[in-house]
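BUG: 3D viewer hangs when loading the predicted structure for this chain

Environment: internal workstation, default settings.
Expected: structure renders.
Actual: progress bar stalls at 90%.

Input used:
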Amino acid sequence: MSTNCFSAENEELNKINNQLKSLLKEKHEIGLHLHPDSDLALQTALKERFQNTSARFYNYNQINLFVKISKQLIQKNLGINPTSFRWGNWALNTDAVKALQENGFKIDSSATPRIKGHLKDGMHYDWSKVDEHYPWKLSLNDYQDTKHQNSKVLEIPIATFNFMGKTLRADPVYSELLKAAFDYYYKNADRSKKPFVFVIISHSIESTHEDESITQVIRDMEEINKHAKQFDHVEFLTINQGYNSIK
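Structure tokens produced before the viewer hung:
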């Protein structure tokens, strides 16, 4: 979650916090999803406006403050200690790895193996050098180096797959393609020593209509869940539960 929601005030803020706490009671996990350029709560706390999403536009001290203050906002409002993280628009970098370790985060799930994008704007991200789909410890020297593994932060990447020469993220928007990607990983991922974590992404805004009607993303997500349940030895886990099963 982005801490922007904590920029709300009075009754609206109370409603938001009550809803988030109800998710925690239902055993969902809440982690930090950092968007410096659109997070008014973070900007208010730091008394500064930020123009870019991607970590590449900020120095270590700025990134460390983003992570530290955002974590404090979650602790203040929800009384929990988040340990999982995803940078907005997948735009992690090496300094961000260092900041995550400094602030006690155990898990990052920003990686989109073999995909890069927005290379000419403030949402720049690049995971094109990564060809690893099993979790690995991030490098403090180069976030895309999957061999070095000298940090304490475990990367649990978003599942990616190829279709007609293009690499796509595992997102309900792809519907039938997502089922085919799940089938491929189920058949081919080596699970002889550790489970394989298949991470699917979406956004809450895609799952919500103001009139409370069902969105297409919810329908598609329900379909992939039903599909996955047909297979043996498939478990639905929070990212921290996934971490505990493979660490």
